[in-house]
């Protein structure tokens, strides 16, 4: 009924072991055209407009002010591009952040 279900790894959250920012993209279940999924896809595609390689992607202008400290190993930021995008969405879009916090079934993958 919620329209979207996903797994998250709390061990990589902003508050390790507790928070849910690190949503995994290896298994997602969503209704067609779910607003969060559409926004996530669109942002991911937009990031490539300023990057030619995965190394350039998180350094592009779209991600300049995104707090990625939960991806503690900096080298991982250039291959966890979907995670970079997700963090930007929930940090900067109040509607999507509320949707993520209150309307999505999130399952803890650490358990």
Quick summary:
The protein is an alpha+beta fold. It is built from three helices and three strands, in the order E-E-H-H-H-E.
What does this protein structure show overall?
Helix 2 (81-92) crosses helix 3. This protein has 111 residues and is of the alpha+beta class. The chain contains 3 helices and 3 strands. It has a 3-stranded mixed sheet with strand order 2-1-3, with helices on one face. The model has no long low-confidence stretch (mean pLDDT 87).
* Dominant shape: globular
Which strand order spans the largest sheet, edge to edge or round the barrel? 2-1-3
Low-confidence stretches: none
Structural class: alpha+beta
Distance between the amino and carboxyl termini: 24 Å
Major sheet: size, sense and barrel closure? Answer: 3 strands, mixed
Mean pLDDT: 87
- What oligomeric state best describes the polypeptide chains here? single chain
Number of helices: 3
Give me the Rg, rounded.
13 Å
Order of helices and strands: EEHHHE
Q: Name the beta content range.
A: 15-25%
Beta strands, count? 3
Helicity level:
25-40%
Task: Label this structure with key terms.
single chain, 111 residues, 3-stranded mixed sheet, 3 helices, 31% helix, 15% strand
